[in-house]
Amino acid sequence: MAERQDPLLSYTFAREHGIVVLEMGEVAHVGAAGKSRAASLLEVRRALGIPLVVETLTPATFDRRLSEVYAVGAMEADAIEGEFSGENSLDTLVEGIPKAADLLEATDEAPVIRLINGLIAEAMKVRASDIHVEPFENRLSVRLRIDGVLQEIISLAGRIAPLLVSRIKVMARLDIAEKRLPQDGRLSLTIGGKALDVRVSTLPSQHGERVVMRLLDKTQGHLRLDQLGMEPRTLAALRTAIAAPNGIVLVTGPTGSGKTTTLYAALSELNDRTRNILTVEDPLEYALEGVGQTQVNVRVGMTFAAGLRAILRQDPDIVMVGEIRDPETAQIAVQASLTGHLVLSTVHTNSAISAVTRLRDMGVDSFLLAPTIKAIVAQRLVRRLCEDCKQPFAAGAVERKLLGLTDDAPVTLHKPVGCPACKGTGYRGRLGLYEIVVVHERLRTLVHDDASEHDLAAVAFQGTETLTQCGVRQVKNGVTSVEEVLRVVRQET
């Protein structure tokens, strides 16, 4: 394959004049949006130094070809790393942006490219999961989600927003002319030997388009179950559940709690090349070698239910459904488990037991739920205390009450302080909190008999940890703080 050449015209010139170089040889094949001005074509002829062959493109085709030519070159991995090494920083990159009254008149888009490169480099450096670009009336805010919490890192003049958003859309091969509808795109990078997918989502707002870039570290899709930090009994129970030849195993929790990572770890453990494993996901986050993965596309009728119905005709042994979010998907998943398939999926609920109630609310009969559900895992992600600055203290009356400590024995806990290593937050990295409900014979009978959530929980957690108890254990171990556990785990009453 020929080595990719840098675009021969600047992005700003190509966009403003509606001309893009498609191919170079003895003559230059260029695409022109509509009838480009003769003066513009003469300027391109002079710059390239060879004759032109002009192909007239529709506006939509021109935008697509413009994105194809400029998207790859806009975000080279080496450039990203180089923009944020040595003396470079986001502050210096921001200072390099021209002060033109209208940035669309600028002839050099390099400063904005360097700023985007710097944002991605900074996000990688601090292990951020998302980059939020948010235009307001007089300013542009850029925030990073670090360890689950948003932090604003720069605030720019509002005039920068249109060009920054437009450039990101080009990189993600989105329609730069469409500003009224939400769009979704994707691009792949390799930075420092680490493969990275960037999911780009745009949303029209009052003062321009908001952009969220989700950074997906491909190595996270290849974690093993024993690398997730589960307590040994929880891990053993989950492994027993996924070893069953049929049934349903559910993972519950809010958005961003690591459910997909847990499901991928389970699939990786089951993927021994002797079974046909198929998934239907929205979005498809990580590629798993040896697993057939299908992307939901609602616009063409490819819903979770339609995808699940289709893959059941592909002779699967194990099926993973990204989320059970409607009655039709729930019914098909239950029927699939009853016909000899192991089904893995997620449900958005606050606790493991409430997943049973959620499926009932979707119209699944209790007499079908009872024999099909094998186990339900609920999980959360809490921030780890920074090892360089966490400070020990003796638990007082408030902490003892929150932790449920009834005796008078002294207990040492730790609290966040903040230092340069953790950017002043007191936390660095995250860990998982887990609870698992294994549906044994007694619990199965209660599910069949439509028992209440309270009665189910009373039986389900005999001898196993709840999410709160798991969090309390990590607080006592000095791994996280009381405030952090209370932030993500609903207190039991």
What does this structure look like?
With 493 residues, the chain is an alpha/beta fold. The protein contains 18 helices and 18 strands. A 7-stranded mixed beta sheet has the order 12-11-13-14-10-15-18, sandwiched between helices. Strands 6-5-4-9-8-7 form a 6-stranded antiparallel beta sheet. A 3-stranded mixed beta sheet has the order 1-2-3. A hairpin with a 2-residue loop joins strand 5 (139-146) and strand 6 (149-157). Helix 4 (77-83) packs across helix 6 (110-125) and helix 15 packs antiparallel against helix 16 (453-460). It is globular, with a radius of gyration of 27 Å. The relative contact order is 0.08. The model is unreliable at 1-5, 72-88 and 97-108 (pLDDT under 50).
Please describe the topology of this protein.
Layout: H1 11-17, E1 19-24, E2 28-33, H2 38-48, E3 52-57, H3 59-74, H4 77-83, H5 90-95, H6 110-125, E4 128-135, E5 139-146, E6 149-157, H7 161-171, E7 183-191, E8 194-205, E9 208-217, H8 232-242, E10 247-252, H9 259-270, E11 277-281, E12 292-295, H10 304-311, E13 318-321, H11 327-338, E14 342-347, H12 354-361, H13 366-372, E15 373-385, E16 391-394, H14 397-403, E17 412-415, E18 427-438, H15 441-448, H16 453-460, H17 467-476, H18 482-488
